[in-house]
């Protein structure tokens, strides 16, 4: 599956890179890493944010965070935050490039970066930020076993996102949006609006 991802991504990379902001001051921007393990059925590395955090506590997220003035680029932001949160050093990530930037409901502009790591990569959660690290096979999301669809309004536009339950973890919101867009645009997955699951309006 990784071969297909890399072939498709190579055709889009130049277009995607041209959209990444490179301003000297990237205040209000953030970056996350969509890290896939290098194996036949790649797994996505996800985190469970600490229940003690003031924002997004107890939510499932991709490793990442806000840009800081010491970061030379948003790619560096994604790699720095990933190392701080889950212990993966930047040199252990084969970065393929950026994905489609998204704006959160709180008007933070986030650029996801696609990367590949070894299947046996050592993961160590930062106890001040995370309660857990876990992995989900890409095939799980391709099957679209959603438990509901969330409707989110951003810039007066309604966006419909699937929500998933994997073991004890609920994957929804921004994280589900990044994963869904990746699956649809890179792997040609057919993840469409469904009427057989509950609809939840978030705003």
Description:
The protein is of the alpha+beta class and 203 residues long. It has a single domain (2-201), classed as Nucleoside Triphosphate Pyrophosphohydrolase. It has helices at 2-17, 74-86, 138-142, 173-186, and strands spanning 29-37, 43-49, 60-61, 64-66, 94-98, 102-103, 109-117, 130-137, 148-154, 157-166, 169-171, 199-201. Strands 1, 4, 5, 6 and 7 form a five-stranded mixed beta sheet that branches. It has a four-stranded mixed beta sheet with strand order 11-10-9-12. The chain is globular, with a radius of gyration of 16 Å. The mean pLDDT is 94.
| Helical content class | 10-25%
User: What is the N-to-C order of secondary-structure elements (H for helix, E for strand)?
Assistant: HEEEEHEEEEHEEEHE
User: Helix count, per DSSP?
Assistant: 4
- CATH H level: which superfamily? Nucleoside Triphosphate Pyrophosphohydrolase
Average pLDDT level: 94
CATH architecture: Alpha-Beta Complex
Which CATH class applies here? Answer: Alpha Beta
Strand runs, count: 12
Query: Any idea how many domains?
Result: 1
Here the CATH topology equals Nucleoside Triphosphate Pyrophosphohydrolase
Distance between the termini: 36 Å
Main beta sheet strand tally, sense and closure: 5 strands, mixed
Main structural class? alpha+beta
Structure keywords:
Nucleoside Triphosphate Pyrophosphohydrolase; 5-stranded mixed β-sheet; 4-stranded mixed β-sheet; 4 helices; globular; 33% strand; alpha+beta; single chain; 203 residues
